[in-house]
Amino acid sequence: MGINPQSIGGHVEPTRYRIAVRGRLSGRLASAFEGFALEPANEYSVLAGEIRDQAHLYGILDRVRDLGLELVSVEEDPSDCPVDEETVR
Known about the structure:
Strand content: 25-35%
Number of domains: 1
Distance between the termini: 25 Å
Number of helices: 3
Order of helices and strands: EHEEHEH
CATH topology: Alpha-Beta Plaits
CATH superfamily: YebC, transcriptional regulation domain
Low-confidence stretches: 83-89
Strand order of the largest sheet: 2-3-1-4
Number of strands: 4
Helix content: 10-25%
Largest sheet: 4 strands, antiparallel
CATH architecture: 2-Layer Sandwich
């Protein structure tokens, strides 16, 4: 079992996330997610940006709910994940 750096006061690097919501967000709605890039798609919109910690993630998800948006998915941005050489082989 690993040690959580936050539990001992260590520094935790932000992680990039992609949060998909159903429909196309207007510029006004997208402005509620400062610091996130909006990636519109056909049936949904993706908000991509850095999440500092779990509390920040929950805050963003609360905002999605408060604005009445339908959450489709939440995932770490795969381009932000470190490459594990054992997995690559």
